[in-house]
Amino acid sequence: MSSASAAPRTFTLSDFDFELPELLIAQHPALQRSSSRLLDGRASPPTDRIFRELPSLLQPGDLLVFNDTRVVKARLFGEKASGGKLELLIERVLPTGAGNEVVAHMKVSKKPLPGATIHMAGGAARGGFDATLLGRYPDADGPLFRLALRGPAGETPWQLMERHGHLPLPPYIERQQNADHDPDEAEDAERYQTVFARAPGAVAAPTAALHFDEAVLAQLAQRGVETASVTLHVGAGTFQPVKTENLAEHQMHSEWYDIPLATLAQLERCRQRGGRVVAVGTTTVRTLESWAQSGQTQGDTRIFITPGFRFQVVDLLVTNFHLPKSTLMMLVSAFAGYEHIMDLYRHAVAQRYRFFSYGDAMVLQRQE
Question: Which residues of 20-51 are buried (b: 16+ CB within 10 A; e: fewer)?
Fold first, then answer.
């Protein structure tokens, strides 16, 4: 075989596109968390299962790793001094010494200038709060905005979001969040949050973990499967489409992660006993593989996983079905093999699986 014929394939953005009927985009969660469907994609052809069967697919000694981030009510509605409507999506609360400063995406017809006062949730005069626009972030031409929030009685940004904000559901889930009444608010408050959410800071849920309930966790424990957690605060960039056909030109968004010492110890023990590391969700994969690359247990990651990536930690992956042309499609293709993933997605569409955040799940094995 010539060296030319053995050269790895070069992928472009179009390779990760697929046809998805709109009616397969889940607008609401399954009746029960673990009653969603599970596509067992470890082998070909795949097997159609129910999520509560997952424990039976794992072995005693395996280690299941979750992302314990908690989604905050980061979507806030307000207006400029001129009366023009705007929307903020708070991506990050800056360290305490920064004086109630946050970094946010802003949706508005005409951007206000630095120094402008913005009235959020009706403004301070009507029970809400005000914000001062300080500039762009992370630099003068950055895509995000830095603001100082001024709440009554010294309320922190976390408290202001909890009181006035809305859960930042993905753009493909239709809701009436800025209306007088959102009929889905109570359901979303419970179900767009994992049962083990602990560390506040995400603007999107680690959706593969939404399928786990107490019964499944108990079955895993009975089977001898260990569980551990990491934290990665999912950013809004997870929904931003890749716009460059050449993948090397894509600028990956930054997200903060942390791996506790206890989890590092569990990973080491799992390896020593010959168990498998099972990542719940692509955010867990990005956290563990960022650590493997950098040696850093805490910090910001811009890791961009595409076919050809060499995985060092994760053996199995539980994940939902992802958007066409997304970085997450690239990640799962790198993990399980491009052709295999495209076959699984064709099967999922044909079998009417439910897609995206409130949709169904699949389990994948790392290709050798």
Answer: beeebbbbebbeebbebbbbbbbeeebeebeb
